[in-house]
Amino acid sequence: MIVRSLAVLIFAAGAAALLAGLALLGRAPGLPEPTRHLRRMKDRLDPPTRVLDYTMADFAALPHHISLATRGALETRGVRASGWVQRIVLSGDGDLHLELAENQRHLGERDTAYVVAEITPPWREQSQGWSYESLLVAFRPNRGGRAPWEAGPRHVRLTGWLMLDHVYDKPVSTWLQLRGAPRRTGWEMHPVTRIELWDDATSRWQELRR
Questions:
Q1: Domain extents for the chain?
Q2: C-alpha closest to that of 75 among 26, 125, 34
Q3: pLDDT tens string 108-131
């Protein structure tokens, strides 16, 4: 009887953990439509056929607290933005979280406001060029590696899908007031579908192949 009860408890705990994990990933049954919509946007596998060049100010100027229909219309945009990756983090869901800053941050300087760009597992798995280790070398981020790069972050240009993460749907001023988390906006580039690095020798953008 004790063994049977223990087995039931273990099964229940495992099932609860599974549901909690699926909910965190946006894949559990019964989730609200905004959460399921967010998952669909993150899971896009095709690159945009047309892209708009966006500045950090363009991201910050996008609207907040909008209807799902308006949000979905904006999320059909492919966007491209350049900057410097001040931090790279491997998230629990497998995404590579990039903090794209408008200006290069030199050694010893504090973090600056950034726009989030995310490389999802389908875009980086089975890809040596976009592995975590390879991107550390390519981006030379201020934070994320074992030690800061002497040369500082490299100028990069990212292309991907515009996406609003409603969890961070707050105006710019609110995020700038948060110590240690100067996120510009809840709008992101997610997923990233193309990476280019600036080549000083040729004065051209060079694609980083997957």
A1: 2-31, 36-207
A2: 34
A3: 788 888 999 999 999 998 788 999
Cα angle 115-74-130, degrees, rounded to a multiple of 5: 45
Encoded tokens for 180: 């240690």
Q: What's the pLDDT band for 67 if we cut at 50, 70, 90?
A: very high
Contacts 24+ apart (CB under 8 A), 128-133: 129/208, 129/209, 129/210, 130/195, 130/208, 130/210, 132/88, 132/90, 132/96
Bridging pattern class, strands 78-90 and 96-101: antiparallel
The yes-or-no verdict on residue 98 having pLDDT over 90 is yes
pLDDT at residue 46 in the model: 97
| CB-based contact 125:193 (threshold 8 Å) | no
Contact 142, 174 (CB under 8 A): no
What amino acid is encoded at 151 in this protein? Answer: A
CATH number, domain 36-207: 2.40.50.140
Residues paired with residue 161 on neighbouring β-strands, in sequence order = 78
